[in-house]
From TrEMBL:
Keyword Signal: yes
Leader sequence residues: 1-28
Name listed for the protein in its UniProt record: ABC transporter substrate-binding protein
Record-linked Pfam families: SBP_bac_5
Keyword Signal: yes
Molecular function GO labels: peptide transmembrane transporter activity
InterPro entries: Peptide/Ni-bd (IPR030678), SBP_5 (IPR039424), SBP_5_dom (IPR000914)
Gene Ontology cellular-component annotations: ATP-binding cassette (ABC) transporter complex; periplasmic space
Residues annotated as domain Solute-binding protein family: 79-415
Superkingdom per UniProt: Bacteria
Amino acid sequence: MRVPARLLPLPAALAASALLTGCFSATGADGSGEGERLRVAMMQPPRSGLSPLSDDAFKLSRWSTAETLVKLDADGDAEPALATRWKQSGRDWTFTLRDGVTFHDGTELDARAVVRSLTRAAGASPKPRILDGVELTAKPRGTDTVVVTTADEDPLLPQRLSSPQLAILAAKAYRGKTVDPVGAGTGPFELTEVDGTSSATLDRYDDYWGGRAKAPGIDVRFVPDGTARAAALRSGEADIVEAVPVSQAALLDEDLITEVPMPRTNTLYLNTAKGPFKDPGLRAAAREAIDAESIVKGVYEGRADAAEGLLGPALPWAAGLRTEVRRAAPEKPDGRTVTIGTFTDRAELPEVAAALQQQLQEAGFEVKLEVREYANIESDALAGAFDAFVLSRATVLDSGDPAAYLYSDFASDGSFNISQLADPAVDRALAKAGGTPTGDARRKAVVEAEAAVLATDAAVPMLHERVIQGDAADVVGAAHDPRERELVTLDTHLK
């Protein structure tokens, strides 16, 4: 049975109802009423029509509708998913596919389907960020074996192939220029309907290779407003709510929220290509002006960790490998005007930007803020339209390994290089980290690459976030994943 709705202040209740009422169903898709469907409130709406070649891929993963050849365990090591085993021989990796897997349209998973999906991803523009700096080709060997070849030996390839952006979809998904995941995945839930940026519907796929899901389906509503998401949990309008804002966590029953340290860093990216922060001395002045501890206490109410580097406590090995970083000396800002951009989708970021505005102005800068929804500001940020940009960034989101994040954000040809950084020393350190075999040697090379980035002051890490997820009291088996890959699983259901 569902928990009775809690009383809400009238404006909050009305806001939640306006956003959510009518978008969730309590019965099966066929009206049979078998079990109760899971009602999920997500933070960010789709930005690319739920294409797996974009960040929307992580929604498909969190709904257990699209799957990859391998997945990651708690330590970030690769383990079987659609592939049951793999073997490296130089630049070649041979993957053996799982028997008995069907796509949601009834077609069978085979080597040609895997090759089709990987080839489309490898040729995409822009590429999925997990493939930054990686050239790969895939060829079938019979019906159940795929050989993936990289331009250079890549010790991290299995982990790369765990990225939700490299999900394997049915042929029907690739008709035309876009990739449409509706009815094309292999997971326990089939994506059956998408209503633009408002909602999505998924039904249980009874022929799933891993068994029958315990819930009959999932009804998703995209609710960018954090207050409305929290209100939906309090009022009983939603069963699972992702990314509860810090400001709302104290208003919820502690038994309904889970707080997990996560590999996500709140960073101020500084534009090194043009504007005031092209000057290393002014970047150093900005770095010296930032008081991260006050932001943690004031904005995050202590529910975050002040940053010592780009990699936080979710990667405990990083702190023990760090050495002192030599940086440029700060120069006086002398009233130089800078514009900081950020977005509203994560409720804390506009507050962080406002705190930074005050701190930088006290240091002698003049600061303007530009705040929009993420979908409306991302392209400008990537184009270098701002002097600085506040971003909440997952550091091991794709591969379980931070080398890919560092390359994407700070390599000269990185696909997410908001700082517009082009530094040969950084490029060399990133190349070394990416080419080092997994284990202690790779971790050391990653920390050396982090140091090379920090030495440029292209990015000022401020704090490491904790994910706060809300689950209604009758929810069983919801995932609490610091990598933000899992949410609703095969076993998630309502009592």
